[in-house]
Amino acid sequence: MTLACLGTGPSVRMAGLRGPAVVNVWGSWCMPCQQEATYLSQVASTTPRVRFLGVDTEDSSDSALDFDTHVSPPVHYPSVVDQDKKVLLALRSPGPPVTAFVGADGTVVFTKRGAYTSTTQLRADIARYLHVPA
User: Do the beta carbons of residue 97 and residue 114 sit within 8 Å?
Assistant: First the structure.
C-alpha cells in the first residue's frame, strides 16, 4: 500500500519502508496521541539514525495539519494519511496510538499499543528493538 503524504511531501510505499524506523499511528482527535507527540518529536530530533514516520488515521486533513501547532517541540518528521485504517488493521490494533518498530529488512520487530509517557520509555524501546542508541 502507498499512502499520500500529509502536506506536500512524497507518498510512502509502506512495504518498501526499511529501518531502523519508528512508525507512529495517530489521530488529531486522540488525546493520548496528543500527549505522546511531544515525546516522539523530542526523540526524533535527537536520534538521526532512526527514521520516524507518522500515520494519520480517521482524521480530517485540516485537523491533522493543525495538530503540529499544538506540539512542542514541533514535529519535524513526515506523516502520511491512512483514512481506510489499513495500517491499523495490518498492526492488528483497534485504534491509535500504536507504534511499530521496523528493522533494517523492513519487518515489524515490535508493536506497542498505547501511548508513550516519556522520552525515556521511547528511547529504551528504540535501543531494545532497533539496536540503536537513542
Answer: yes
